[in-house]
Amino acid sequence: MAQLDAALAKIDSNLDAALARLFALVAIPSISTDPAFAGEVDRTAEWLAADLRSLGFEAAVRPTTGHPMVVAKAGRAGAPHLLFYGHYDVQPPDPLELWESPPFEPRLVETPEGKQILGRGVSDDKGQLMTFIEACRAFQESGGLPCSVTILLEGEEETGSPSLPGFLAEHRAELKAELALACDTGMWDRRTPAISVMLRGLVLEEVVVRGAARDLHSGMFGGAAINPIHVLALIIADLHDENGRVAVPGFYEDVTELPEEIAEQWRKLPFNGRHFLEEVGLSVPAGETGRSVLEMIWSRPTCDVNGIIGGYTGKGSKTVLPAEARAKFSFRLVGAQDPEKIAASFRSFVKARLPADCEAEFVSHGASRAQQLPVASAALSKARKALREEWGKDAVLAGCGGSIPIVGAFKRDLGMDTLMVGFALDDDRIHSPNEKYELSSFHKGMRSWARILAALAAERT
Amino acid sequence: MAQLDAALAKIDSNLDAALARLFALVAIPSISTDPAFAGEVDRTAEWLAADLRSLGFEAAVRPTTGHPMVVAKAGRAGAPHLLFYGHYDVQPPDPLELWESPPFEPRLVETPEGKQILGRGVSDDKGQLMTFIEACRAFQESGGLPCSVTILLEGEEETGSPSLPGFLAEHRAELKAELALACDTGMWDRRTPAISVMLRGLVLEEVVVRGAARDLHSGMFGGAAINPIHVLALIIADLHDENGRVAVPGFYEDVTELPEEIAEQWRKLPFNGRHFLEEVGLSVPAGETGRSVLEMIWSRPTCDVNGIIGGYTGKGSKTVLPAEARAKFSFRLVGAQDPEKIAASFRSFVKARLPADCEAEFVSHGASRAQQLPVASAALSKARKALREEWGKDAVLAGCGGSIPIVGAFKRDLGMDTLMVGFALDDDRIHSPNEKYELSSFHKGMRSWARILAALAAERT
């Protein structure tokens, strides 16, 4: 504990220097989606590798067919091996005119809630990844890291991580650790930390329903010819029952109820489902009868149509009976739901509803399992204790309605669970003008990681 | 009858001259949709006015805000007054490379079925309107027209007739006749004439269903937020019952059964519903249980979705919960169905199915009543007798699944029924490359109009 106390003291006394380093990192416009900024992306990777080397990491910029990865290693051999993941690329700052100050000239501002750091990427994800690097620095300056740490920093997260799967496959032995750490998540509120322990999985299916050999005139054929839009509408209408449950056979077979400890915590959370919906102009939860809004978005599986198109969609009218109609479906999965089984059952469900003269084409746009960190896992217990000591209250064991592809990839390709801890706030305006990161998130985020590293280094249970 | 015989003899002996006039008319590229051809459209109107003057009509080219109308008058004062309608504009000939000879260099070709005239507009509608003008010429050269005839020729039919309603309103007194004649229709087959006695009406409605205030991420909100695509699909799914009947309340209230004389004729027609569907890749009639395909497309009302769009419709996937979804609906009306009543009932039907948090916006894209020429009308009896004498068999009293706006306008604005007789064939390739008109359609079409004019001029019944 003496080493942790020393590291925490270093973090407190070196806050200004850490802030200066974050400003230097944010000042490089590492916009991954715009080829004009490829040089800046490279420069950011070099900056990070140099910074990591300065604190004793063996660090290298590794080329990919896209933007490079930064891989760095340090720490005590024989100690638990942790793989930390973050990304150093950022979203474009447009629309520029809505920024109160230039997006790549970071600055500190005072607000009634405290000091905030302003700049593109300051919350997503440069500020967050620096909380971890600064915690490592504090340990290195206090006798060395208590764990074996590998840091993997990606430059393509904002463009869908095209090079990541290949990179993981190629460097499996080097990157495989006992646990992955990811920092791309948020706090429950500005005083309550959170650990994201559940991520929903995803099945993406597109269906094209085809009828006649060509578009028909609805005057000549209307009444006699099958209309694929009607067929598709009937299929969509059948997808949910009157209780809002998904009607695809077997859909709920591998769905498990929430562990009671989490269920109890969620019931006590100061979360107002009505307010959550009101923010987007809604008032009534549209999901399964008898479930809370938090369950609907975090722990229950869903089916939604994300897009539909067929026939004439321009201005005015055209009396066409279209030859085809198409829709894109997404299923959010939880628990042990098997993406392949769900996709197959959905396809059978659609086929069973095709009338004579119609056929369906199916296209998969990807699938991933739900991820869940077992409540009983030792790493989770240690991280919860560490966060309680820093924040003086329990971390929320949060769900996440979306999927974080890297977490699925770590599980699938490297057999690792991921501990997701981040200090972003819902109002950080990530991807929007005037992105900010609370100075308290930055400071207590570093302290939190220092405590987590110390806890994970302690004797294995 | 002596005068009719003289006129028929003139038609037979002057066929080559009539053909030469048709060639001259087809040679002028009166493409109404392309501003580059505006001069040619004008030239066509002038050509027609001059031709009509040459056979004794008082004829003028009347300007509109678009392309001009040709209005011509001749005939015996005190005799029944008939208004003949045709259009002299044509569709663009594209794709040009698919034409076997230049589209505006008409020519006669021999085929196993007989001689055909080739050229853009030869069937739609220049050949058809010339059958009437040539019949008038034959009478003028045989002692004069037996009726009072006004000819109205339009140059904007292929672009939706934008100037026509205003022109009819402005010249109501001049154009109002006892009966309108229109030639823009077809024969049952190459040996059987047809009179189109029923046109379905139309109600065009667009519905926008709106949910949340903005597009939502399906990971963050999926399960809790209402999806307007689902709502729209449920509405569409409810529109038809299990027997294929439209479920909008009151929809069938003003639908009348087919007059028995027509029903009996249709039952005997050599029409193969299965073959009709097979031509477009279908095999099973999709309409009301217990109705024949001819009824479905000619005499029964329908509801179809002509277009639908919502959410993400590009390549791949995007996990969006859209804020809105929209669909375009068309109702084909028959009998005495009231477009306003149907539209109002449809809107109530949609509103009754909107869940909390959704609202609907409605846009009308037009409405028209069904048109029906009473089977018992004297004009219809006379035309049927005239066609029987020319063709040696009964004319089919046909329905038409689509709507012909001019017929509705004549009824609504001038209080006239329209007798629709034309000699086009289904395989005339109108709007397509290598458009043709049978020489027999042209020749016997002129003779048919001569007989109809004589019949309509006879003592009123």
- Structure summary, number of beta strands of chain A: 18
Q: What's the mean pLDDT score of chain A? A: 95
Largest sheet of chain A: 9 strands, mixed
- The CATH homologous superfamily of the largest domain in chain A is termed Zn peptidases
Strand content of chain A: 15-25%
What is the end-to-end distance of chain A? 18 Å
- The radius of gyration computed from the alpha-carbon positions of chain A, rounded to a whole number of angstroms, is 25 Å
In the CATH hierarchy, the third-tier topology of the largest domain in chain A is known as Aminopeptidase
Uncertain segments of chain A: none
CATH architecture of the largest domain in chain A: 3-Layer(aba) Sandwich
Q: Total helix count of chain A? A: 15
Structural class of chain A: alpha+beta
What oligomeric arrangement do these chains adopt?
Answer: homodimer
Instruction: Please report the first level of CATH classification, the CATH class of the largest domain in chain A.
Output: Alpha Beta
Largest interface: A-B, 79 and 80 residues
* Structural domains of chain A: how many: 2
